[in-house]
User: Fold Holliday junction resolvase RecU from Bacillus lumedeiriae.
Amino acid sequence: MAIKYPNGKKYVPAATGAASKKPALQNSYSNRGMTLEKDLNDTNIFYLERGLAVIHKKPTPVQIVQVDYPKRSAAVIKEAYFQQASTTDYNGVYRGRYVDFEAKETRSATAFPLKNFHEHQIIHMRKVEEQNGISFVIIRFALTEEVFYLPACQLFDYWDRMEQGGRKSITKTEIENTGFLIPKGFQPLIPYLSVIDRLYF
Amino acid sequence: MAIKYPNGKKYVPAATGAASKKPALQNSYSNRGMTLEKDLNDTNIFYLERGLAVIHKKPTPVQIVQVDYPKRSAAVIKEAYFQQASTTDYNGVYRGRYVDFEAKETRSATAFPLKNFHEHQIIHMRKVEEQNGISFVIIRFALTEEVFYLPACQLFDYWDRMEQGGRKSITKTEIENTGFLIPKGFQPLIPYLSVIDRLYF
Assistant:
């Protein structure tokens, strides 16, 4: 189901809209992570359409400062700022269970830098785990196009190691050993529910 | 826990920021529903701090059209538009279960107009129910300050009745009979988990 808004237009993710104004950046910095986001959105639509799970990406949090209300047309936000998310980007429901994850991409071949996560997100994931939710991160190595499912409890170990003065990244070998390679799919592209099935059901 | 962003400022909900630029509207249209939203946010913080549940309001979906990137300062969104949400506003996890709801307020004394919900939200709630999630709406009657928990399955009945040509609202008596009055609390203000306990655990 392609969700359409009342104006009949298809939903265009915010980041794409912004990027379209800055074509020079399309294939460099601003586009980082867009492949993973797009593949996950397609995957979530696949799961949604087939009634397998209801998982959505949360909207980008924005602090709105000024809004114009022109007569006879839609309100226009004239000044706003990106806010740092206090939770993860994706959540929803699968077979009654709460599913919550963050997705990140790296161009490193050998390790995943922990600075990709914010402290708030780690705190959030710990709280989700305490509530018996299914919490994990999806990590994509762009160079090899490998996508891993890393359970949050494993991520906490690496995070705590860093906090105690240890390395600021997770080596790829560690991710291979403590996470799960998500086999590349066609429909869906990133079949992460298969890992949840294996771990929880 | 008051969530603070890296600039050290407390999170200010978008709608408040927008309203502050339009003081004339503060106590009329633009402020409608803010009491309920604020009370629910306080309730969710209460539940979060005590480790009882992890439930958040989703950010307002915004379509970003133009962003300026000034040197040495934060990116400024210069043109953006409010989008209609395709899901409900609140979701999270309670004792492993997925919780999902929408909250609405009315100034009517006798009935709750169904136009407060969008078709997309009803479709979303049906999918959540199919996945065995806990789906409901919170309805506040502003005049009497009564707050009700109405299970989604009941809402579907009223929605379907409207679709079949019936009344376009739910009478207050119907809400009293098929929903649950949430007793007014102090800590938390709207103790909706107590209804979930009664219905699901």
User: Anything to note?
Assistant: Residues 34-49 of chain A form the longest helix (16 residues).
